[in-house]
C-alpha cells in the first residue's frame, strides 16, 4: 500500500483540532466479563432547586439587562454557568425538563459514538459508549463502556486498548460490533461484544487500518467502513526478536555473589557478547551456593527471547535455572533447542544450560509473552564449584522509541541504527508511578511556541512495510498535572519520499489515565545510512495556557499484516466464515474496490433497502457519496456525488443530512450547498441548508427541541471549522463559533428565527434520540440556556424575549462587564447595561442602554441606546448618529419628557461637543440642547438619581467639571433653570453609585474625600444643609462602594457592595446604627453589579440581616462556594443560592448587570396589600352602610318626637290639600321659620 495514509485518522484529527480551536500497546487478555467497578446506581433524575418565592406582583413589567446570549432561571440543581470544554474532554449529556443540557458522566476525552444495546431476549443491556477516553466519571475506562440509563450505572468494558470510532448494536445477533483504532483479544480495529459472553473475536482478525463507521444493510449483513485495504492483524517482523532490551541502565542486584576480585560485579555480564571468561567478563556465585541475578527497570516491555552465555571459568557453570517475571513473581515457560540433541524442548522451573564450551550461548523463547518491568534468574544447580554467567541478553518484537534514552536500545549492542530520542528543552525525568514507564516532563510558560521544547523519536525499523504508529501518553492524574496539560503537535517523515508519508497531527494530553493514539498508518521505509524514520513532538503554539505541562514517553511501531483486496468497505455475513480469496462476491466489496487508492469511508447510513456510503473517495462514476441497494446490489450515484469530502451523516426518516467540505453536486444540478446539505431519500433530490456555512462541517448530530409547540421535533446540529452561517433569502449572515442548528420544519437556521427557544453552544459529537423510556442521550461539551436571547429578557411566569433584535457581539471578543467605577475613557462595557420602562405622559417605551448593536424596525443599525415603543406596534428606534459608536451607556433616568443617559459617552450633537451625558426628548424623538459636557477624571457618568420633589437630576461619576463649573464627582442639573449646579462644596473623588434614601438625603458610594481631608467610601448629602459628610460608620466598609440598595421602605437601612482593598468583593448592611457583614464570604472574581430587596411570597427563617419576608438579590457575576458563577443570586441572610444563570457567545462568561421594573414597589407584597380597586370598593361599602344607619336612626327619632307631640297625619285627599294650602296666609308660613325648634324628645 505505497504512500497510503490513514485518511480516517486525519479526519479524526480534524475533529480534535476543531475542538481545540474552541477548545499499553500489549494485546489485552480475552476478557469475557465486564469489570466490576461501577459508578453508584441512580436513575437519570434531576433535583429541583428551591423555589425563589420572589413576589413580583407589585412590580409590573420586569426585565434582566446584561451581557449574555442565553439566560435561564435556576430551576434544577444540575444547572450551571460552566463554559464548554476546549481541552478535548466531553460528557454524556441529558436534557433537563426546562430544555437545558446537564452532564451525566464526564470523560477525559471524546465520545465518538453510542448505540442502545437491546439483547436477543428483548431486554435492554444499556447504552454502549465508545470514544478515545480513558475514564468515565471517576472510573478508569478505556475506549468503551456500558451505561444503564435506568440506574445511571457505568460499567467499563475492559479488554481493548486504543480508540473506538463506531458501534452497531444488533439485536438479531445479540451483539455489539465495535470498530476503531485499537487492539483487543486477538483482533485489531474490529471486534464484537456478544450478549453476556463479553469480547469475542470476529471470524476475521480485524482490519489493517481503522474502522470509522458500521451499519446494517437491509439484507442483514454488517457493513464496515474505514481506511483499510484488507483484513489483518498486527504481525511480528519477518526477523523476530529483533529489538534488544537495554539492560545496561537497569538496577542490577544479586544474591550469593562471589567475593573473588573481578568476578563479583553483576554488571560484568551486561553488554558482553564475546562469551569470553575472565576477570571483568564473568559473574560468579559463591562456592557451592545457589543464588540469583536480578534486573529492575523503569520501563515496561514484553520480552520474547532470553539469551544466556554460560561461563566455564575454572570449570564452573550454571546447570539449571529459572526465570521469574516481575512484578507478578511468575515463573516463565520456555522453548529451546537442546544443543546436545538438536531437538525442540521446553522447560519451566529447572531450565538446563549446556556446559559444552563450543556452545557460545543458548536462546530460550518465551511461551507466554507478557508485560514485565523486571526479572530474576535463579541458579539452582551448577557445574564444578559454583554457578555463574558470561553474558545475558533479552529481546522483544515490539519496536519502541522512548523519550528517556536510557530505555532505548543500548549503544553497546553494536547496532547500525538503534532506537533513540533527541529531547531539547527543560526536560526532567518523571517517575512512572502508575504508568508503564518513566517519562519526560517539561514545565513551559507563556508564550508557548513549538520551540519551547521538543522530542525527536527515531525507531529501529529493520524492514519496510505498512506500520501502525502509536503515541503513548501517561495519564495526568498520577502526577497531578491535569489542569496544566494541553495540546501537542506531531510531525514526521516515514519514507524517503516525503510527499508520500507526511505526518502532521495535533493531540490533547489531558487524558486521566495512560492512553495511546494512532498518529500514522501506512508505509514506513527501513532505516539506512541515508534515511531514518522520525517523529517530532512539540507543544502546539498559541494555546491559551499560562503554564503548560508537556510530557513525552514513547512511540510504538507495529508491523501490520494484511490480506489485501479491500478498499474502505467490507461486507460481513454474521455466522458465516470469511473467504479471503473471494472478496469480489460482495457488491459492497466491489464498490470499495472501484474507489481510487488511498480512499477512505467516513460514514455509513441505511434507509430501507438503501445503504449510503460517504467519505473521501473517487471512482469513475461517483465521488465522496454513493448509495447501494442491499437487495439487488444496484449503485445510485446521487447526482454524481459531491465535489468534496463528506465527514458525517445523520439520517432522520427520509432526510439524510450531510456535512463536510463541498459546495455542489458533481453534475452541477444542485449548487450552493456550502458544506451542509440534505438528501431526500424518497424524492432522490439534494437541497442546501439555507446557503450552508463558511467552513468545513465535521459532525452532523440530531437533537430534539420544542421549536413552535410543546411537542419536541427533531432538529440538526452541525459542528465544524466555520464561523458564519451564510446569508440567504432575507436572512443576513450570522456569526457563530463552529456550531449551528438547522430547523427542518422552518427551513431555516435556528439562529435566524425569532423564537423563544433554548440557546446551545459548543460541541455535540453524537446522540441517541430513541433510548427506551422516551429519553434522549447526547455526547459532547456544551453550554446551554433555556432561552436564547441577547442582552435583555423579560420575566413574568417565565423568561421571555423583548421584540428587539440585539446582535451577539463578535465571537472572538473575550470581555466581561467592566466595573462602573473603573470605566476609563478609552474602554467600553459590553451588552445591555441598564434599562427602564417609561410610562410618563402616556408613553409605553422601553429604553435600553449599554454597548451593543441592534436592528431598527426600518432595518438600520442601532448603537448603544434603543427605544421600544409599545404603543406604536413595538417600533424599535435608536438615536441619531451624533453619538460615537464606541460609546457606552450605563445610567438612564427620565424626567418629564427628557431622557438623561450617561456613561462613557462622546459625540457631537447639533454642533455641540458632548461628553459623559446626553439628553434626549422622548416626545419629539430628538436631541435637546445639551447640557455642558462633564470632563476631567475619566470623563464618565456611573449613576443618575433624580430628586422627585424638585426634578433636579443628580449625576455621579469620574469627572471634575461641568462645563466651566468645578463639580467633582457629583453634579446636579436643574431642569427648571437648565444649568449645572454643585451640591455642596466639600466632596471630591470618583462616584460609582448614587441613591436617595429620603427626599433630602442623597448617598454617594465610591472612592471619595470629604472636606479635602477625610477619605470615605460612602458619603451623604443633606440638601437642607447643602453639605457632604461621611455616612455613619462608613469607616467599617472594606473598600469603595460600587452598588447601593435601600434595606427598608423608609431608607433607614441600606445594603452596600463593593471591592475591598485586597481586591475581593464584599457585601454589608447598615441596620440603622451599625454595619454588618453578610456573614458569607464571596469567592474571588465575584463582580457585584446590582442589589435589590424583594418581598417574598413565602417566608424564610428570620436572620439578623434579612427580614423573614424579604430576600436580597445580587446581580453581576457572583462566584458561589461549591457551585461556581451565577449571574443573579438570592441571599436570605444565611445562604446564597443561584437565581438566574447566563451564557455568552464565544464561550465567554455572561453576566446580568441590572434588574429593572415598571414599578418600584419592592417593599409591598401581594400577601399584605389588596389591589387598589378592592380597597376602594370596600371603603365605599363601609361608607354607604354608615350613611344608611344614620338615616334610619334619624327617621326613628323623628317618628318618636312626633308621636309625643300629638302629631296627626294630614288628610291625604289632594283636593283638601290644595284647598288647605290656599287658606294659609303666606306670612304665617314665613313666620314659622323664625320660631325655635322644640327640644329634643325625652325618653
UniProtKB/TrEMBL annotation:
<dbReference type="InterPro" id="IPR024982">
    <property type="entry name" value="Rax2-like_C"/>
</dbReference>
<dbReference type="InterPro" id="IPR048265">
    <property type="entry name" value="Rax2-like_third"/>
</dbReference>
<keyword id="KW-0812">Transmembrane</keyword>
<dbReference type="Pfam" id="PF20843">
    <property type="entry name" value="Rax2_3"/>
</dbReference>
<keyword id="KW-1133">Transmembrane helix</keyword>
<dbReference type="InterPro" id="IPR048266">
    <property type="entry name" value="Rax2-like_second"/>
</dbReference>
<keyword id="KW-0472">Membrane</keyword>
<feature type="transmembrane region" description="Helical">
    <location>
        <begin position="1172"/>
        <end position="1197"/>
    </location>
</feature>
<protein>
    <submittedName>
        <fullName>Cortical protein marker for cell polarity-domain-containing protein</fullName>
    </submittedName>
</protein>
<dbReference type="InterPro" id="IPR011043">
    <property type="entry name" value="Gal_Oxase/kelch_b-propeller"/>
</dbReference>
<feature type="domain" description="Rax2-like C-terminal">
    <location>
        <begin position="917"/>
        <end position="1166"/>
    </location>
</feature>
<dbReference type="Pfam" id="PF12768">
    <property type="entry name" value="Rax2"/>
</dbReference>
<dbReference type="GO" id="GO:1902929">
    <property type="term" value="C:plasma membrane of growing cell tip"/>
</dbReference>
<feature type="domain" description="Rax2-like second">
    <location>
        <begin position="240"/>
        <end position="389"/>
    </location>
</feature>
<feature type="domain" description="Rax2-like third">
    <location>
        <begin position="400"/>
        <end position="560"/>
    </location>
</feature>
<dbReference type="Pfam" id="PF20842">
    <property type="entry name" value="Rax2_2"/>
</dbReference>
